[in-house]
Design a protein that fits this description.
Layout (H helix, E strand, L loop, with lengths): L6 E4 L4 H13 L3 E3 L9 H8 L6 E4 L13 H22 L2 E7 L22 H16 L3 E6 L2 E2 L6 H11 L3 E4 L3 E2 L2 E2 H14 L5 E5 L5 E2 H14 L9 E4 L19 H7 L6 H13 L7
Parallel strand pairs: 1-2, 1-3, 3-4, 4-5, 5-10, 6-9, 7-12
Antiparallel strand pairs: 8-11
């Protein structure tokens, strides 16, 4: 195990990055954190940050995540999600460090009913999904000691994300129109981060591609309704809430979305010992987690 060399966490100020930093601290894992001040597109900036630091793991949370904007900015998405990932992977390989990277369910077309396994060929519909797939390919081409996790519908106490957006709309009284014909599984960032911290602490070498999400299949409308109901029970929402189900055709998003992507998390459970819980249980924990943070609002 390589704790004497520590973890380099990129994208540390983002939703998942902040959750991982807390999980690493709780596990007693030494961590070097960076965010926008170290541009992963710039190899010289990366080498400068790494110089003089003992790094045994690189955990990459830096990403271009503007799904709709990527349709008009494909080069910008590729620069971060593909070239940036390759830069980090090359640096990790050169230092003998293990690499953890996060991809997305958007690498799949979502045109079939069953759960997607790790060995099924990606077919992204959007330029964002394409950029994330290219990052996967570049990572695998330059490094062989990596864990790549495809996750879906990620949310947590640090924003922005779908749950935060719904709660804000419900509190403001404006209501929300949410698609009811796109299906998938949420991923609660806190449990994902705890699983990743446990993976690093274990020193696992079961490298490869893994899928991870909460258990259960729902629509975005189902998710919004649960946020409304649990938010009201937790005292985070008051007054009437207007929630309308709409079709994807009525939604004005620029990028095409997969209609149904359910990731099969069985490999992560079997080989890495990851804990997977039901999405509703995790959403309830989200509200308990926010309540434990003084002054914090989702």
């Amino acid at each position: 195990m390589e704790f004497d060399r520590g973890i380099w966490l990129t994208g540390a100020d983002g939703m998942l990055g902040r959750q991982l930093a807390a999980a690493f601290a709780e596990e007693g894992l030494p961590c070097h954190a960076s965010d926008r001040e170290v541009d992963i597109r710039d190899r010289h900036a990366l080498e400068g940050f790494a110089r003089g630091r003992r790094i045994g793991w690189i955990v990459n949370c830096a990403a271009y995540t503007a799904v709709d904007r990527a349709e008009d900015e494909p080069d910008a998405a590729l620069a971060v999600n593909a070239a940036g990932v390759e830069n980090l992977a090359r640096l990790a390989a050169g230092r003998g460090a293990r690499f953890i990277h996060f991809s997305t369910d958007y690498v799949f077309a979502g045109d079939r009913p069953g759960p997607y396994r790790e060995d099924e060929p990606p077919r992204p519909l959007s330029r964002y999904g394409w950029s994330k797939w290219q990052g996967e390919l570049r990572l695998a081409a330059v490094h062989d000691r990596f864990f790549l996790f495809r996750v879906s519908w990620l949310y947590g106490v640090h924003g922005p994300n779908f749950v935060h957006t719904m709660l804000r709309l419900f509190r403001e009284g404006g209501g929300a129109r949410v698609v009811n014909d796109q299906f998938g599984s949420p991923t609660y960032a806190a449990l994902l981060a705890a699983n990743i911290a446990g993976l690093i602490a274990s020193g696992s070498e079961r490298f490869g591609v893994y899928h991870y999400c909460d258990r259960g299949v729902i629509s975005w409308f189902d998710f919004a309704a649960a946020v409304r109901d649990l938010g009201r029970a937790a005292g985070r929402i008051e007054g009437p809430v207007a929630l309308e189900a709409v079709s994807t055709a009525a939604y004005s998003g620029r990028a095409p979305r997969p209609a149904r992507v359910v990731l099969n998390s069985g490999k992560a459970e079997r080989e890495l010992g990851f804990l997977v819980r039901d999405w509703r249980q995790n959403l309830g924990e989200f509200f308990r987690e926010t309540a434990r943070r003084p002054g914090a609002k989702p």
